[in-house]
Amino acid sequence: MEIQTRLFGTIEIDSDRVVQFTEPMAGFPALRRFVVLDPDPGSPFKWLQSVDRADVCFLIADPRAFFPTYEVGPVLGRLADLRMDDPSQAIVAVILTAGKELTKTTANLLAPVVFNALQGLARQVILEGTGHPVRAPIFEEAFAACAAG
Question: How many domains are there within the chain?
């Protein structure tokens, strides 16, 4: 199938790569179909592109690339709509917000996106009571270590 994107123009994707959100993402109630684009394999950064709106695209990453101890915890057991036989099937990504400077890029650790890649399903979840921030600087520790050393 062919889709329009703001960042990559018109691209061809296999329809089996379309991920159906079981609940809409915060702020996008009409959008449920997305595709994960990986233009730089090996990089922790990927793009979550709406299939239905070219202008809706999110920079995402595996949170453990920047926050090694990050966990979504027991919420995985409460996501029956993702039809996971085992919570270990979950793939977790966080939405990033790029700053004007690279060092200002942040991750939304409070509302990760959980994927069941085997079923082609996903859902954004809110990790209430965890204390996870909405804007966690992803490069803060790395740049502090470089400055100190």
Answer: 1
